Amino acid sequence: MNSKARWIGWSEGPGDRETPYGEPAVYLFKNFSCKHARRAVLRMSALGLFVPFLNGKRVGEDELTPGWTNYRVRRDFFTYDVTDLLREGENRVGAVLGDGWYTGNVAIYKRQLYGTYPLRLWMELEIETEEGKIFVVSDEDFRAARGRVGKNDILNGEFQDARAPHEEIFTPGFPAESFAVSLGEDFDPEPAAVPPARCREIRSAKEIPSEGDGRLFDFGQNMVGNVEITLSGEAGSIVQVRYGEMLTEVGGLYVENLRSARCTDTYTLKGEGEEAFCPLFTFHGFRYIEVIVLAGRAEVKGLKGKVIFSDLERTGHFSCSDPIADQVYRNALWGQKGNFLYIPTDCPQRDERMGWTGDTEIFCKSAMYNMDCRAFYRHYLDLCRDDQRPDGAVTDVVPYVPVVGWGCAAWGDVICILPWQLYRMYGDLTAARENLAAMKAWVNFLTGTAPAGIRAQGGYGDWLSVGEITDTSLLNTAFYAHSVSILSELCEALGDPDAGTYAELFERVRAAFRAAFLCPDGTLKGGDQNPAAVPGASPSAPSTGDTQTAYLLAAQFGLMSPEEIRPHLLRRLKLNKNHLATGFLGVSFLLPVLSELGEDDLCYELMTRSDYPSWGYSVKNGATTIWERWNSYTREEGFGDVGMNSFNHYSLGSCTEWMFERVLGINPGLPGFEKLSLRPMPDFSGKMEHAEGSYRSVRGEIRVSWSVRDGACAFRAEFPKDMPAEIGLDRYRVISLRQEPGLIEADFRRD
Description:
Elements: E1 8-9, E2 26-34, E3 37-47, E4 49-54, E5 57-58, E6 76-81, E7 89-98, H1 100-103, E8 120-129, E9 132-137, E10 143-145, E11 149-153, E12 157-161, E13 179-180, E14 182-183, E15 190-191, E16 197-203, E17 206-208, E18 215-233, E19 238-244, E20 246-247, E21 253-254, E22 264-268, E23 275-277, E24 284-295, E25 298-310, E26 316-320, H2 323-339, E27 340-341, E28 343-344, H3 357-370, H4 374-387, H5 414-426, H6 430-448, H7 472-494, H8 499-517, H9 548-556, H10 562-575, H11 587-596, H12 600-608, H13 615-620, E29 633-634, E30 638-639, H14 656-663, E31 666-670, E32 675-678, E33 690-697, E34 700-709, E35 712-718, E36 725-727, E37 733-740, E38 743-749
Parallel strand pairs: 6-15, 12-22, 32-36
Antiparallel strand pairs: 1-8, 1-14, 2-7, 2-10, 3-6, 3-8, 4-5, 4-7, 8-9, 10-13, 11-12, 16-25, 17-18, 18-23, 18-24, 18-25, 19-22, 19-24, 20-21, 26-33, 27-28, 29-30, 31-32, 33-34, 34-35, 35-38, 37-38
């Protein structure tokens, strides 16, 4: 950009990295004159978080802008049309800045990951007048002040004192005590490519009995965002709002799983009738809140739960007759809402909230059915490249936080898997083209750490599996092969001459995998070499190759045929009494692979059961989101290990893609649904009597419904008339089939 805007800021001190909070928010503003404005556009970025104002009015609806990037490499600006907020004559523009991810607490790293104070603002206001364009930019003419928003932190919460001014500071002529600003380094920001976070839904709450000093309220849904609370009371009264996902057995707010995150907001009343309080520079993961009057007298007059997540268009809907499966889908969708906040995070409540790459890649296809994720995931891939190491290793979390490592199988493979899934779902090779060099660098890194085609043991493995620990050398090698295969396919689609080279490499890795891990009797074994940690990762526990996940990966990644894995996968399930034993990675492939094997009844048994371990177990225990652990809470044993026990963790909800692709049967026959492949797998076992849903593809909406009655399925699919479509019913006895442009109806039985 050629803007003359500068990075400006003001600070009273450097801050302390070890404290839960830093300085109060800073208010930056500038006066200017304007006449005969036809149009005005405001562009703004910050080191920290910003809330823009013009003439005493908040600009736009965006929350927590500019989001989280590696600010040393990438700074995004957001754009707003502010024509209607301009006045003839004197105007005042500016923003409130909070700590955010820039200098606030990030996970367990604590504060100042990217820098310390001053927080800085970059602003350009472009005004079209009858005489031409004028620009009002951030420069030394800005002034700084303090206001209502005090100490604030992403993890710990926010303090506000309504006796201090707020929006008035941005009103022309308001006599705010102000200070001179300083100028920072030159750094051109770029237009934000990621959709902003916004309040997408308002939820009400009901009061429930409390055993403590405060009042407890239940919003009925584990959600992410903030609460707007309306109060009345005496000036100087102090009200505290605490957040939690669950209640203790005695009816109090459960906060132990938040670890060091305080998740508490504090408000001091102005004392002039009813007044509303909502934090600006924090967010919370919660279902329940506790409101405590710490001093004075105050009364709660109203509550609004503001559900905040990145503003992505909803594209998928699913419902069915089985209450367990139906709730699992809703839980996964709410998990996606709660963890899509500029980046895909693992959890939204405790002192973590990081962009784990493994969680991202394993859930991405499910996410793409639910919402239009193109811009969101392309932005995340930009951030992956920003933090990719010189040796090609991809970090375990993006943006990178130096409390974890890099180069881990399934986690680092996001750099290949995400562009590939974007291509399959949307038919767009843009992400593949943008990330081709990064994908090649990642595969080169893998090749360099895989003597004779076999990667060493180490990494996270099939995280939080139940009863079975898959050998990490086997798992790491399988994902190595998968990334190589993906890279070959994408090179072919892009016309890159290295496609054949990677196809040959895949065959070599496949042969090495089979030689190292496949036994003469067809079972899989663990690696023989001594354990050695993948660079930057932790050593794995003792493990084996004879696990559900091992066979699932071998089948899904083309390392073994379905016929080869069938008896051993079914044996492992039978040994586990037809319960899953998978963790974060294997769970994504369990139902799809079983569907390919024709094990329809087993799929529906796994999907609808409610005993431990299963998807339905959390539903039976009251879950409204996907939990981190299969047993994060049970009525019999209470809460799981507080060291790592999130109640909003979407990874285990990756079964969503199976619901769309096999229950409904909606599949991209060609990338981007240039052709629709309908492959329905209705339930003839009696557990699910009907299902329906839709997916708005880039070529138009696809709607599917089916019902099973007296052993026969009535299936109907509607889709755009210009979308070629085929239906696969080879496993069924077709009674009738009607197919015409935009419609397929079929009646069939399973013999």
